[in-house]
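TICKET #2291
ISSUE: user wants both folds in one file
ATTACHMENT 1:
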Amino acid sequence: MIKQNSKTSFSLRKLTIIGVLGAISAILGMTPIGFIPVGPTNATIMHIPVIIGAILEGPVVGAMVGVIFGIFSIIRSITAPTVISPVFYNPLVSILPRVLIGITSYYTFITLKKAGKRLSTIVVTLVWSGVIVYLIRNFVIQLNSYNTNEIGLWQLVFSGLLIIITLLIGYFSYKKFKEQSIEVVLSAVVGTLTNTVGVLGMIYLLYGKWFVEKTGGNPEMVGKTILGVAIANGIPEAIVGMLIVTSVVIGIKRTDKR
């Protein structure tokens, strides 16, 4: 009887977390809150609840939150349509990649925990270094644009603050939570790239030429155009994902230990 109650409680916990994170993902997807300006592009954070659910509760929870995320992508494409909305009516574009986010995030987390601290530290150092270089390069570009009055002061300030926040979170997360933050950071990166590559990859396979034409690109350069979109969106989203997921997951794990 005790085991049965324990199992029921465990299942209820998972269902509750799926509901809460799914609701957060839906709110992010249906409102402007789900988009953060990072340099010249907007980074979506709608996939972040999926990654958090996978790291904290496993691949099943992550996958289920991903399903909810995908369903609301379809709903948003119907209720707030754009020229490219029809591609998201297809579950292979809107749902499948979002389910995979939870799976890849979780197994990245587990694999790195087993790989050992030294290898994980090297990998995460390279990732963080790449992020800082990207942000500094973007800041320099924006500084030049500000000098020629092409962008506003708030955009320049935001880019500068993002560099500072990235450095601080990277330092404190490693300093205080060495053995946990490394796996979390890289899981966030992998989960984010799964979303970007998965969605754009399916669009390339199923709607490539049509998608490029609708976005005003050259239909003879489908691969290069979609790759450009992936880089422009994927890097900022990975940066924002690393910052938010690391902060939330480590904060929750620290609270659980008390």
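ATTACHMENT 2:
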Amino acid sequence: MSAPLTRKGAATRERIVTGAATLLRERGVDQVSLDDIRAATATSKSQLFHYFPDGRSQLLLAVARHEAQQVLLEQEPQLSDLGPPGSWSEWRDVVIARYERQGTRCPMSALTRQLAPSHPEVGAVVAGLLTEWQRRIEAGLARAGVEQARTRAIIILAALQGGISLLLATGDSTALRVALDAAIADLLETPSGAP
């Protein structure tokens, strides 16, 4: 959309995106139509196409951006608090609980699979999510005084992504738990002399 949205317009657009995201999480991308989204968000057809003139694919891309933000928001405040002893185990528990709740249905993966062939910008959404996630982990490692924080952040994120992929394929979170625990094992230890 070229013209900036009014506050009311931005709220309406956000209502459509969050409503669509909720439906897609519950039913899956292939099971939700624009009519379903209109009904769930109390949106008229003209409103829907006002905010998403290119239709379903444009709305799905907006939902993918929303879901990417949710991945990080659902790790707060633990993700921003990474650094001191105890913070790593709290964050790990939040991440594992989030993905266990999600199970084998990942709206982000489903959206990117469906959009990727015709929407190259979806790659930028995924890349942006992973870059920001890595940056936030790296900041926590720096606060913890870890050397080569960037390299360690890459290792931790790779362990996370590998574990998440296996959970999505099998429905079993064991690989996610094992990989993440191995990647942050030394950060889970209490410093000597600490209670």
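RESOLUTION: both attachments delivered.
EXTRA DETAIL ON ATTACHMENT 2: The mean pLDDT is 88.
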